[in-house]
Design goal:
This protein is of the alpha/beta class. About 35% of the residues lie in helices and about 20% in strands.
Length: about 120
């Protein structure tokens, strides 16, 4: 009998406490997790061949924000269909709105329940 590999989550956030929280909770949900502290590092990993099942993306980060990250991601043919869940405050998500073109949203501050709901369909 063989088992499928667990889904692979790439989480991108410049807040170390969010990275740790998502890492711990998502692993308990059955994900393999790669936590990255900024969008530039995440793009480097993706360009180097990282193939996540889903990306959890903070919208407000230094150096490269979520909208810029999404623009670069759309230029990578192998990753264009990768689901992205945007996470931020209600005001930021409302401000960026449909320009993000993401699969879902997750409001900050995160809780175990909201994270579980946001990632449930990717397990």
């Amino acid at each position: 009998m063989t088992y499928a590999d667990p889904p692979f989550l790439l989480v991108v956030d410049d807040d170390p406490s969010v990275l740790l929280l998502v890492d711990v909770l998502a692993e308990k949900m059955g994900f393999r997790v790669k936590a990255v502290s900024n969008g530039l590092h995440a793009l480097e990993h993706l360009r180097d061949g990282l193939q996540p099942s889903v990306i959890l993306l903070d919208i407000m980060m230094e150096r490269i924000d979520g909208l810029t990250f999404m623009n670069h991601l759309r230029e990578m043919p192998a990753l264009q269909d990768t689901p992205v869940v945007a996470m931020s405050t209600p005001a930021v998500l409302e401000r960026y709105g449909s320009r993000l073109q993401v699969s879902g949203t997750l409001l900050k501050p995160l809780t175990s329940a909201t994270l579980s709901d946001a990632l449930a369909k990717y397990r």
